[in-house]
Amino acid sequence: MALPESPVWFITGCSTGFGRELAQLVIARGWRAVVTARDKARVADLALGAEERTLSVDLDITNGAQITAAVRAAEERFGRIDVLVNNAGYGYQASVEEGDDAEIRAQFEANVFGLFAITRAVLPGMRTRRNGHILNITSVAGFVGYPGSGYYAATKHAVEGWSDALAAETAPLGIRVTCIEPGPFRTDWAGRSLRQTPSRIADYADTSGARLKGTSEGTGRQAGDPARAAAAMIAVTEASAPPRHLVLGAFGIDAVTAKLKTTLAEVEAWRPVSLAADFPKGE
């Protein structure tokens, strides 16, 4: 039986990848966990041997009624939610010009609006207790927009900016916010879960077209280990001063640092033009 003070984790998207690995580690530690999937039968095995401290719940994060029911079930079973992990989501690739409107909107419903909705549902309990930690699984694409992944990057950039605001609002209330930003990892992201609109315009063959092909062909050979990523996420929640950003993997570190250095250099190079846009002092 879990100790009364053991944390309660609520993890979305536990059927595969980061969500499953993280759920396994949390449960192995003797902690309490709410594990979710669109079909809870796919995560029922996670509770074997730990039924008294594991709750499996049906959750499609684009379904508002299921969000409400899942959070209520978690709070009724365990009394609270200490760590919310917004992991559910998927990738969609297309050139910007060839993006399919229905696919784009579905991507935003899952990766952005669903994440917003479940966080809003969990916040009242965390705010009342003046304690909690929210982990938003974004991506290196939350910093860098790659050809062929413009709409996916847009969803992750949206979550990153929203997380800045959330952190500013909730820090005085004892609620911490961390974005987890993986590079390529051996999950289903680039395999079964990936959705693509093929690039058929010849002008994009060497940009979007090449990236779509390379993503599919590279699945299963990525450098990132989901189990080690899950351990890093747990470490963040145990830190006395957790980071606002945690980039995962060598590819991610290189890509994000290069982007930030380039951006800063550009801002500095254009400083005189930027400053000239203000009214002169005294006016």
Structural class: alpha/beta
Number of helices: 8
CATH class: Alpha Beta
Estimate percent helicity. Answer: 40-55%
CATH superfamily placement: NAD(P)-binding Rossmann-like Domain
What is the topology, as strand order, of the major beta sheet? 3-2-1-4-6-7-9
CATH architecture classification name: 3-Layer(aba) Sandwich
Q: What is the β-strand count?
A: 9
Cα shape: globular
Secondary structure layout:
Layout: E1 8-11, H1 17-28, E2 32-37, E3 54-58, H2 64-78, E4 83-86, E5 92-93, H3 101-129, E6 132-137, H4 150-170, E7 175-182, E8 195-196, H5 205-218, H6 226-238, E9 245-248, H7 250-269, H8 271-275
Helix pairs in contact: 1-6, 2-3, 3-4
Write structural notes for this entry.
By secondary structure, this protein is an alpha/beta fold. The protein has a single domain, classed as NAD(P)-binding Rossmann-like Domain (Rossmann fold), CATH 3.40.50. The chain contains eight helices and nine strands. The strands form two sheets. Strands 3-2-1-4-6-7-9 form a seven-stranded parallel sheet, with helices on both faces. The longest helix is centred in the middle third of the chain and has 29 residues. It is globular and about 60 Å long. The termini are far apart.
Descriptors for this entry?
Rossmann fold, globular, 283 residues, 8 helices
